[in-house]
Design a protein that fits this description.
By secondary structure, this protein is α/β, with parallel strands linked by helices. It is 42% helix and 11% strand. The longest helix is centred in the C-terminal third of the chain and has 32 residues.
């Protein structure tokens, strides 16, 4: 398998070139400019491709709206097409032209209503720089880099990751590192059924699910996607991210708080994947004390971790599975009754696997995290797999690591062997524990409590023999140092210098 860092040359080129044009805009503001234009270029390219195909038939159907929607292609009105924008790139009215294009596209495509950014005409946006960005996208020869949808989709996702890096903590609202999402997807394998994310951010869980299905020659039409997010800007980004990939999804008709306004109250999901906000406080617990979702215990006011978990459990189908990211504190916390909630979930035999993740995977926080996997219908009853992946990962920078594809595959393979009953415990990496063993450890789920420490290779060389060998080697090194010293003095003398 390949490394997660491969095949990003083109995306990196777009990002680096666009950054030169950024000026003094902050990351959050610039994000809307770049991502909005990527989306506009994408739908215009796909429209033009279909337009040329219809034009060649000679049947005069190239402006027939239905010909496009039938192929899941957005209809782009004449004044909103990229060639019109490109021709007027250096007009003082370029910002207003782009805003109008977004409005026209929303009018022709109800699915996009209220989603596209329309703030390109604002005075604080440097129109010279905006013109240069339009030129950049106009001059990109997509055909050289593969399928337009694929390359623009990858560029959108790559730019999301770079904005996450720049925005730091704020990025937690919209971005989960791709390697974390890929790990969840590789273990859950969402080939068929309902896929749900109650805090979907920019839609990364859905993008990776569809990618996984395609890579394994599955049928993406066999999954149904549902999600929601409370942040209006993030919700719009998710809609665009999915549209640019040709993914149909129901993210609700507007952004909404999952705890107080569940957009999909009747969903019975086969796969739930999520990266909820870590240790969210002041989430409104006092108003939801008697909520039916709290089957295992009322979550504390100061931390929503177990509120998120129980919300997801309440939406599971009879054979449904969950894969989610939680701060490590949830593995062993006793405050606010969290230990009782965890105990009740364990007793209900829902937890299939816990993975302790490496540090520095997130741009947004240095809080240690774990992956939790749960299932309504476990294959291995009263058993839980623990994986200690803390030593995994490849350092990209001093503050950032990623999991490689091979490491992700290793964890997925380990999980598959556990489910098949063929897994053997591996010191320093994985172990299967019974529910009774977990009870004996006070319902604490920290993998290090169950995965044995890898034994160092035993040194069987007798002490006296080892000392004889080492002193002999040291004597040889001393002799070599004298030879080097003599040679250095000789060379110095040759050029007129002598040591005293």
């Amino acid at each position: 398998m390949t490394d997660n860092t491969t095949n990003i040359g083109f995306e990196k080129q777009i990002w680096e070139t666009a950054c030169i044009l950024r000026g003094n805009m902050d990351a959050a503001e610039y994000k809307q400019v770049v991502l909005g234009l990527i989306f506009l270029k994408y739908i215009s390219d796909k429209f033009d491709e279909k337009f040329q195909e219809l034009l060649q038939t000679g049947e005069g159907q190239e402006e027939n709206h239905e010909k496009y929607t039938a192929d899941n292609i957005f209809f782009v009105p004449h004044k909103a097409r990229w060639n019109k924008i490109a021709l007027n790139a250096h007009s003082p009215e370029i910002g207003k032209l782009i805003d109008n294009a977004m409005l026209l596209i929303e009018k022709e495509n109800p699915r996009l209503k209220g989603i596209l950014p329309k703030n390109f005409a604002r005075p604080e946006l440097d129109k010279r720089r905006l013109s240069d960005i339009v030129d950049l996208f106009t001059n990109v020869k997509m055909i050289e880099h593969g399928d337009t949808r694929d390359i623009l989709g990858r560029t959108y996702e790559y730019c999301l990751s770079k904005f996450a890096e720049q925005e730091g903590k704020l990025a937690g609202e919209f971005y989960t590192p791709a390697c974390v999402v890929q790990t969840l997807v590789a273990i859950l394998q969402p080939f068929e059924g309902c896929v749900y994310d109650p805090c979907c951010g920019s839609g990364g869980m859905f993008v990776q699910s569809v990618s996984f299905i395609k890579n394994h020659r599955g049928n993406i039409n066999k999954i149904r996607i549902y999600g929601q997010d409370s942040n209006p800007t993030t919700w719009k980004m998710a809609q665009m991210n999915l549209a640019i990939r040709g993914i149909k999804a129901n993210l609700g008709s507007y952004n909404a708080d999952t705890f107080f306004n569940d957009c999909h109250p009747t969903i019975s999901a086969d796969f739930i994947m999520a990266n909820p906000p870590f240790n969210l406080s002041n989430w409104g617990a006092h108003k939801l004390q008697k909520d039916a979702r709290w089957k295992y215990g009322v979550p504390p006011t100061g931390n929503a971790n177990f509120a998120w978990l129980q919300h997801m459990i309440s939406h599971l189908s009879p054979h449904g599975k969950i894969g989610m990211v939680l701060a490590n504190g949830s593995l062993s916390s006793t405050s606010g009754g969290e230990n009782e909630i965890r105990k009740n979930i364990i007793k209900d035999d829902l937890i299939t696997c816990i993975v302790a993740m490496p540090t520095h995977l997130f741009y947004t926080t240095q809080i240690p995290v774990s992956l939790w996997f749960l299932s309504r219908n476990k294959k291995q009853k009263n058993k839980t797999l623990f994986i200690d992946a803390r030593k995994m990962g490849k350092a990209m920078t001093r503050k950032l690591r990623i999991l490689t594809d091979n490491e992700i595959a290793k964890m997925a393979d380990t999980f598959n062997k556990y489910e098949n009953g063929t897994l053997k415990n591996i010191s320093g990496f994985c172990a299967v524990a019974t529910t009774d063993e977990i009870i004996q450890k006070n319902y604490i789920l920290t993998p290090a409590r169950y995965v044995t420490i890898k034994e160092e290779k035993k040194d069987e060389e007798p002490f006296s023999q080892k000392m004889t060998r080492l002193t002999s080697e040291l004597s040889d090194l001393f002799q070599q140092s004298h030879i080097f010293e003599t040679e250095v003095q000789k060379q110095l003398k040759n050029i007129g210098f002598e040591t005293k």
